[in-house]
Amino acid sequence: MDKKATNKLNKEYENKDFFGESDESTSYTFVPVEAFHEVEEAGDRNSLEVNLLIHAENSHVMSALKRDYGGKIDLIYLDPPFDIGSDISIDLSFGEHSSKSAPKSNLFRAIAYGDHWKEGSESYLEMLQTRLLLCKELLSERGSLYLHCDYRSTAYMRLILEEIFGKKNYINECIWHYKTGGMPEKLGYGRKHDTIHFVVKDPNKAIWHPQKEKSYLGHKYGFKNIEIEKDERGHYTWTNLRDVWIIPALRGNQPEKVDYPTQKPEALLERIILASSDKDSIVADFFCGSGTTGVVAERLGRRWIMCDQGDLAIHTCRKRLLELHSEVKNKNATARHFLILEAQEDETSGNLSKLYTDYKESYIEKVFEVIGASREETGLFQGRLKGNPCYLVDLEKNATKELVLKLEQSLSEMGEETGWCISFNFDEKLTQEFTRNQAIRLIQVPKEFFQQGRKSAPVFYEIPLCKFEVLHQLDDSYDVHIIDYVPAATINGNNRNDNLKQNPSDFIDMWAIDFDYIPGKHFHYDWCDFRSRGKRSLELSSSAHWKYSQAGIFTIAAKIVDVSGVETVSLQQIKING
């Protein structure tokens, strides 16, 4: 899309306070960090038909959404963790092998999300109750909520829903029946279903479009005044959809299958969205996982909001949505644009860390315990990691270039060669000028560190590095070629470091270019390429053939996302003559 056509959109999204709350108890907002535009112009922010993929803890997101979306969401689908008591992991592949065909040397295990609760089922139910109360505030008067669970919690879920929404607003206990999994070890019947609870805000106003299904007959005789049809299975008549849904669970060879555990079939979400929303309704999923809700809502012409805290979940959603946009574009149609948002520090209060209040008191102890660092006050450093001095930046502050220079000076005075700087946030200037040969190496505190429900420790990564060159074509267009990439090494956790000895570019799962990036603003996708289960190759040179419409100095940004969802952005300036 021509950059001029997105200028109006870009100006709208530069507003720091895209949505959120700013009172003393919740001093945080959510702002765009990535933009995918498919429309030519936009009016004021509140009228934008924009879809949102939000990378943050869902209770914070729902609280912040109340200002602009309270009473406006027609359908909420929730597929939360099931209180299994363990972490949910997946084998990820890299390079040109899919996860199904990859040799063990091209696989490593990663945790998608945690489902372990410190106080057991009681804290799990409290977590869900808090979010269901927020859902009620977000639902419109015509709104419906579908809560997906299994045998572990379904009885509790119904009681909580009836308490929050009222018994008269509890409509159905729907059963999703499938044939895979669930075989008992010694005693009991095979578990072959999940439960989906269906409640509404107001039964007299709720959106409801009855769906039909085939009801097969033993014979076609004795039935009057009904139309009987026949297919390969036999005679049937059409009847209103019942509350037992027979929909196959996804298998590895199905085209819609992605590398994310607990992915739900598109047919399941299509049934829910068609029944309980209208065209242009807003559909929300606050445990979005693989992104099925957003993909189906987009295909059916609904607006959507999705949220997840996991890097892998957001990356999986992003790729599915990009693939869907490509499909739509190939059919000469237009999909709604979408934004990826994250929580951002409110510059007036400087308190992004209010999102993580529970961690402030023992932050350094908890981080050091997870990464295996010991406390040892030397110079500016607070401890040692892998034998080298390490420094943890306060949760309320960013790691800056000035801080790293001070740490390098302290390191030199101590007679040490290598040290670590660990931080939750890094200034963009620092990461852009960072090189692999610096004495101070950078470690990212992952968002998953603050996530509830994890049994095992989240993985901490070194900041990955990328270098690219700008290609000036004969037709006066521009492209980008990646010439060096250093993947993020793990400090603790999974076995991916053993695989880094292979071709580093194999770890690139997606990369994208913004040919007119404004530092400090969101990244706009002008070109991208990514791997999927069906397409494992990845070009290291873009094919954008980008042409600038005016002279000036422009910043080109290349965003690299690896197989675990770990991101890095590299910048380079270019001068365009008139």
TrEMBL record:
One of its GO terms (molecular function) is N-methyltransferase activity. Pfam families: N6_N4_Mtase. Keywords: Methyltransferase, S-adenosyl-L-methionine, Transferase. This is Site-specific DNA-methyltransferase. InterPro entries: DNA_methylase_N4/N6 (IPR002941), DNA_methylase_N6_adenine_CS (IPR002052), N4/N6-MTase_EcoPI_Mod-like (IPR002295), SAM-dependent_MTases_sf (IPR029063). Belongs to the N(4)/N(6)-methyltransferase family. SUPFAM superfamilies: S-adenosyl-L-methionine-dependent methyltransferases (SSF53335). The keyword GTP-binding does not apply. The lineage of its organism: Bacteria, Deltaproteobacteria, SAR324 cluster. Residues 73-310 form the DNA methylase N-4/N-6 domain. GO terms for biological process: methylation.
